[in-house]
């Protein structure tokens, strides 16, 4: 069963999560400090981390940034406030979901299951489209023979576009593809992921424009422009 690391300084909240998750068969570890969580993930990687934003040492955002330097483990933030900025910032730094306190432990458990299901590796073989080749096993996309350094969200986004050349995907569909709950307000994060992917493509070929913008609709991959 998947192992979940809970990083939360309020014991009562951690207790309800541990109880709910263990009741569903997950194994759990609990820490109260962000720095300790980053260190533990290096030593004994969890399959998913539930990360409180307001921690006594470093913020959950900072802990997530540090985690992203070496791991693509799914992260679900717990926040005391329902701030739109928090949501967007959280997703931009690579979180998978976001829950606002007070929450029901059952809801959190359901979301944990949903995230783990979304990220379950698909058994695709290496495929290629135009100048791209995709290796889902190694989470690697190469463009014109050069491996791209992509975040997990960027990889999923580009992979989704490449799988169906010329199809126009809405931001909502792309959010779904990257594995982010498509609540209102998250669409902006797709634009910033696209911007970042485009910059990485241009770093390989300056005039590359394989990702097309369709105003009011979304984005598509055009093999003709790659
Ligand atoms: Ca807290």
TrEMBL record:
GO terms for molecular function: cis-regulatory region sequence-specific DNA binding; identical protein binding; phosphorelay response regulator activity. Residues 124-223 form the OmpR/PhoB-type domain. The keyword Repressor does not apply. CDD domains: trans_reg_C. The modification 4-aspartylphosphate is found at residue 52. Transmembrane segments: none annotated. Its main location: cytoplasm. Residues 124-223 bind DNA. It is found in: Cytoplasm. Keywords: Cytoplasm, DNA-binding, Phosphoprotein, Transcription, Transcription regulation, Two-component regulatory system. Gene3D superfamilies: 3.40.50.2300, 6.10.250.690, Winged helix-like DNA-binding domain superfamily/Winged helix DNA-binding domain (1.10.10.10). Residues 3-116 form the Response regulatory domain. One of its GO terms (cellular component) is protein-DNA complex. One of its GO terms (biological process) is positive regulation of DNA-templated transcription. PANTHER family: REGULATOR OF RPOS, TRANSCRIPTIONAL REGULATORY PROTEIN CREB. This is Two component transcriptional regulator, winged helix family. It comes from Pseudomonas graminis. The lineage of its organism: Bacteria, Pseudomonadati, Pseudomonadota, Gammaproteobacteria, Pseudomonadales.
């Amino acid at each position: 069963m998947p192992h979940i690391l809970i990083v939360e300084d309020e014991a009562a909240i951690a207790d309800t999560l541990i109880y709910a998750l263990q009741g569903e068969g997950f194994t759990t570890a609990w820490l109260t400090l962000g720095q300790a969580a980053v260190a533990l993930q290096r030593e004994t990687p969890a399959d998913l981390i539930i990360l409180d934003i307001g921690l006594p040492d470093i913020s959950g955002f900072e802990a997530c940034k540090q985690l992203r330097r070496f791991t693509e483990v799914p992260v679900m933030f717990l926040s005391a406030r329902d701030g739109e900025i928090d949501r967007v910032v959280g997703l931009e730094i690579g979180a998978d979901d976001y829950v606002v306190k007070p929450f029901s432990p059952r809801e959190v458990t359901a979301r944990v299951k949903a995230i783990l299901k979304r990220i379950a590796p698909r058994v695709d073989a290496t495929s290629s489209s135009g100048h791209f080749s995709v290796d889902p096993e190694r989470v690697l996309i190469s463009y014109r023979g050069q491996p791209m350094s992509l975040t997990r969200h960027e990889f999923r986004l580009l992979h989704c576009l490449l799988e169906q050349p010329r199809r126009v995907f809405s931001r909502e569909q792309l959010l779904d593809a990257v594995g982010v709950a498509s609540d209102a307000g998250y669409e902006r994060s797709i634009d910033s992921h696209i911007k970042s992917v485009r910059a990485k493509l241009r770093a390989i070929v300056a005039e590359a424009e394989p990702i097309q913008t369709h105003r009011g609709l979304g984005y598509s991959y055009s093999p003709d422009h790659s």
